[in-house]
């Protein structure tokens, strides 16, 4: 015979378990590149309101997020700032290649806080008055790699390299400039155009390799199904309009 107190505990456990299961069934984990922080926050809010499903975002450097997924982190969707990282995870069997799609093309700019006279051209960063210049770490951040390519194209990499401050991701790089820890930063247009109190200098897209951003569903089960629905929303006309508003260009055809 089950005592009343024991029965109460069992019922409470059952209710808690059902509640937890129901809660988990309406959430899924998304690993997203740092340049998407603002755009995906808006997309996620709208998606949750209409689909009653909540994407839980972890924003960071694409390379570091890819490493976490490769090591088994339970993300259901990976939205990268460079498609090569997604392709690598597909090859390793960590993400579903059938769900891989380009969703945007990123752009970089020079962002200067209001306390500093902005450069007129990218080549002006060779001027010693720019004592500290921030870029995302090119070893694992696609926007940092693009920044390095642009500086090399402009012929000033050797001049500025000793003055570089490397951010873990492009969002942290912008924060260096916003807080006055550096004189200028090369960051994603998607973040710079909504940053207060600064000047933005576009960098010609011919100066760096296209930043083709791609996503793919990772994992299986209900979370993967929810992730696929969110990916469809990102690629929808409404999702693309939001990304365009944040400075992303439409994705190029192909995978």
Structure description:
By secondary structure, the chain is α/β, with parallel strands linked by helices. The chain has two domains: 4-105 and 211-245, Periplasmic binding protein-like II (D-Maltodextrin-Binding Protein, domain 2, 3-Layer(aba) Sandwich); 108-202, D-Maltodextrin-Binding Protein, domain 2. The chain is 42% helix and 21% strand. It has helices at residues 4-25, 37-51, 62-70, 83-91, 142-153, 157-160, 170-178, 189-192, 221-235, 237-245; strands at residues 27-33, 54-60, 77-79, 101-106, 108-113, 133-136, 164-167, 184-188, 198-202, 211-217. Strands 2-1-3-10-4 form a five-stranded mixed sheet, sandwiched between helices. The protein starts with a helix and ends in a 10-residue tail after the last helix.
In short:
The chain folds into two domains: 4-105 and 211-245, Periplasmic binding protein-like II (D-Maltodextrin-Binding Protein, domain 2); 108-202, 3-Layer(aba) Sandwich (D-Maltodextrin-Binding Protein, domain 2). The chain is elongated and about 55 Å long.
Summarize the helix and strand pattern as letters: HEHEHEHEEEHHEHEHEEHH
The total tally of domains equals: 2
What gap, in angstroms, lies between the N and C termini?
62 Å
CATH architecture of the largest domain: 3-Layer(aba) Sandwich
Strand order of the largest sheet: 2-1-3-10-4
Beta-strand percent range: 15-25%
If helices are DSSP runs of H or I spanning 4 or more residues, what is the number of helices?
A: 10
Query: Could you name the CATH class of the largest domain?
Result: Alpha Beta
Structural class: alpha/beta
Query: What summary fits the major beta sheet?
Result: 5 strands, mixed
